[in-house]
Records
---
Amino acid sequence: MSNSDLNIIKNVIVSAGSNNLKLAEIFFNNSISEIKYLSDEFNWKEIDTVEKKKHFLSKHKTQNKANPKAIDGSFNLIIPGAIDSHVHFNTPGFEQREDFEHASSAAAFGGVTTIIDMPCTSLPPVNSVENFESKLHALKNKSFVDYAFWGGISGIDFENNVHIYNQINQLSEAGVVGFKAYLISGMETFTNLNLDQMSQIAKIVFKTGKLLAIHAEDKFLVESRTKHFQQENKNSWKDYCQSRDVLAEEKAIKDMIEIAKASGVKIHIVHLSSKAGLNLISEAQKSGVKITSETCPHYLYFTQNDFNNPKISNYLKTAPPVKFEEDKTALWKGISDGTLSFVVTDHAGSIPERDKSSENFWNVYGGIPGVEHRVPFLFSEGFLKGRLTLEQTINLLSKNVSSFFGLKKKGELIKDFDADFALINLWDSEIITANNMHSKGKYTPFEGVQFNATVEKTWLRGSLVAEKDKQIGNRLIGDFIAVN
């Protein structure tokens, strides 16, 4: 196929390592056919203002040459479609809070082309091949983006005397990316494991070669404090945060490090929130323990002081809760130095009028619908504020995740890889408002915050699935990705 038969994005800049860039045009159909570089490397500082952009553009802009398939990238940054490996899109079973159509639309408008859905917020949960197939069937023609699944292991499985070994191996063969389990869970349909059970499954998961992802908060510490506070009618955000403090995360991570050492399994600590937890993981990594972690935008931006803002206090509730300034600083350092593998959202939406309105903080639903905001957040707060290089920012959103989970032909701008792109405007800004969100439940603790980067367009396997401020119809073309 000649380039004249292909789609083409002209006048875009691509990362050339560190903070360097190149002017390029990309030829593609459903995969990338060619990336043609049109300039030598230049540094971001050469065009870091709108005025410099216009000047550079006037010298380098290419002509469309009457090609009807040519798309003008307007000298914006093009990145491989972002990948969010920790989301709760809820279909089937909990669609009253969020569903795959709304959430995947939000993902597409946020520059995300692939998500990995958690097993616990489905009915039935994805803890067997039968349930896996049920979810797969329920999602047919319901996603704007590609998707993979986590498998799950619940305490209920042990109560029901399920053959855990067969269950894990069958799910692994079906193509889940790894397995999720909880040391503490508030879900009746997906309960936590005790440490003995966790040790058992770690040995089984190890033999599959896949990950064991853990919600790491110590159950005894959290539940004993919660009971004490509630008995004393202490129902504020301060009481909730105190019940799930740094020590609760630290204790759980210590336990999981020991399980990783004993079993050899690759442990992944989800949504890390504290400096103490980060330090434990860093030291364990240096000693050869197979343990990794991730964090989320809310842990990188907010602290517990923000609960004093009544406009966002309930919206900010998550488990674990955000911590303090020293934790936020440490987590930025952790993603910069590679201790943390990537930034995810833990997207968990709800209807705020129903689920986020209680004056009793224990009864407030815990979750943030963040899949739409992660990409502009990381460019704005990471790259543009000098906390990360351009290359690091893109890798945290795309390449690191695809490599980590073995997502083939995803996460990089390489010939024959999927034509998954996000076009990022680094010269524009946007005030985040709930009204502009595409999730089912429209709320965010980032309400009123300015992000100094915007997602202009998103393509999935060569098809435009989102364009800022526009309706483009039901592009429900997302496919399931099996990882084997």
---
Amino acid sequence: MGKIKLAVKTPRIDMTPMVDLFFLLLIFFILTATFRPQESVQVDTPSSTSQTPIPSDKQFITITISKDDKVYFNVDNGSDSSQHIRGKVLQAIGSQYQIRFTPQEIKKFEGMASFGLPVVKLKDWLNARDQKARDAIEDGVPVDSTDNQLMMWIRFARTYNNDLQVAIKGDGGSNYPVVKKVIDVLQNNNVNKFNLTTNLEKVDVTLDNL
């Protein structure tokens, strides 16, 4: 009796569910992602041989010192954006200097990056028509002893989020006296441990260098 041969069928995989899942994930990430705001100033950080990266899971106060010795301040919103850390800090600073910010200005401030200007100019900075107009306003956060606004920003930021760590990001061409002023402000706020942001430069050590 002859053997019955079954017809060989080529296997077929239906990719439709996978394509649907891909587009659902893509739409989800587009709707929930937050774009990183543009920094107010670009700095050329000095080189370093240290290989210790700043932890990405930490929350930071970032103090930037530009080449022309202007001081800029930035604070993270916190691990839970619903806490509105930046908005609370802005309102506390406004109360200190008797400036009232609108809900629209507070919301806009929460989505922006570093800034470098006196508190009295913050409203003009927030309502500027574009980034170029904001840059023209910025002349640095005051760090003088008569009106040390950097100290106030740090103090209020740590009031609403005590877990904040501090990073100083200075340009390689900035002058030491300004850097020292910033460090003095940190120490006056009992911040004795902070990070210095640098460019990693690999150095090969040979016997001739020893």
---
Amino acid sequence: MVNVTAAILAGGLGTRLRSVVNGRPKVLAEIRGKPFLTYLLARLAAVGVRDVVICTGYLGEQVRATFGDSYGDMDLFYSHESSPLGTAGALRLALPLIGSDPVLVMNGDSFCDVDLSFFWNWHRQHEARASMVLVEAADVGRFGSVEVNTAGKVIGFQEKNMTNHAGWINAGIYLIASSLIETIPKAGMVSLERTMFPAWVGRGLYGYQSKGKFLDIGTPENFAAAEEFFSPGDLGMIRPSLR
């Protein structure tokens, strides 16, 4: 995936996690002594990604001060929102810095142990305009669920807190064509999850059903489980050049 640009959405306010991150953005919350963002960058480095755009917002200057302009062999670029734009708005703002079509997009507060190279090939084989990694959850109430047909096309979404049952949830990893990103409004807060993905149903949006384990650090309870989620062996993928 050497020619694929990745964009990491790292601008969230992280209000639910402030009691444990002590004045830092969520992506700098430490797990096994390393900022959470390190695990995402290491996963990208493992599949050969060379260019990463980090979309920052709240306390974004801390992210740049921690990681600088490179991570291992990867070049890091920063797209900073001066006021909250939402996940879609942040991605739209970063479009001039994105050098590939499609772009690999990752939420900065979740991790999914999915084979990114396989996901890339799956996306191309399905001739998708946008694909999202899905994981199975025993209770979709907190996340909301995603419905796909037998061909892998996304056919609908169910909002969170509507019902409690097993199903497929959004794992926060996407491949999105530039032509779709250009349809995101340039002004105001816009959400990928609540606004754009529903709007893209029927326009080439697919869901890749992964068996990879999934972690969302958005709440203190889930963050507390992160130490067990990553094994000591996972630290082997952390490159020593972290600034």
---
Amino acid sequence: MGIIESLRMALESLRGHKTRSSLTLLGMVIGVFAIIVSVTAVEVIDVYFKEKLQFLGSSTFSITRTPMIQTGRLDSSVRNRPAITFEQVERLEDLMQLPVTVSVIEDFTRGKVVYSDRETEPDIVVLGVDENMLGNYSYELDMGRFFTSDDLAYARPVCVLGTDVTNALFQFENPIGKVVKAGGTRCEIIGVLESKGSIFGQSQDSRIYIPITRGFSTYGGSNRNIANISVRVHNPVMINAATDEATGRMRVIRKVEPGKGNNFEISTNDSMQAIFEAFTGTLTAGGAGIGLISLLAAGIGIMNIMLVSVTERTREIGIRKSIGARRKDILRQFLLEAFFLCQIGGFIGLLLGAGVGNGVAFYFDISTVFPTDWAIISVVMVTGIALIFGGYPAFKAARLSPIDALRWE
């Protein structure tokens, strides 16, 4: 009996037992779905992180008091580190020998921005920055101008708006030159930034920027901790050398004793991506493990169903053997039945898993992905399950004696 005839008979057998075939198929669908949906969702998250982390750039690193990305509760020695003050930032800028540009961001307050009889939602963050913020944090100016060194030196009451604030207050008019009230202080709008979107679920456009010196004079706390210090290297090739020099300078500025660990953190694009890759790798392994357990359970179900099928079709096997069917023909037919069940279930599970996994991407407007590697792995796994769990029932059917099979009632 040829392969085509075996295929035809296998398909007819599956069609003849639709309920049993469907239930067996469902187990395989669930197993592959569990693997693909988990790894797809994790890859979507991973791509999102990589896209959003580009704000650091290949020639920029950040200095913070505590880790920028925190997993779990921080040790008390980290939580109790002394503040990185603006004075320390200025000393670092003066001491650096390599050509770099230093910039700062500090959040002062949160509330609504008011203009005339219009106001925003009470979630606008007032950030203090310097004149180098645009270049160091990859922002673009949409209209007007940005802060100058004189604005910083004289702590002028000027501000630059994010697009969410602009759209809420000045949808039909030019905001430049208007005076708004933000966080209890008035400032003149001198510029508007282009939209930056969201990062980690927080909008980067629901912000209003003021000179950091103005923030100190308005809200006090000149010795407060600076949230983020960005150091941009003029020559990207010197990024490692600049990181090493900044580490040494900060240790001197913050009086860290020789042999003791840093009481600050330096983060680069690569170091932050490494943290996320370790995190997403753990999630992928966990999701794949759960899916593998589901696949094994589905495989056991297939073997059970196939054994029942062999028992029910014992007389059929005897008749086929009596008219010339060989062991390999019987073996091939039952293996093909298991193969079809596994492959069809795997294909459906693959499509469903990729679709549901990318549902997060569609909802949050993130780039979609398709886990090609895991799709191939899933196909190989379901093929292996078909051969392993379908092999024993097929082998048992092939070894049946024609005489004993014909006597079966």
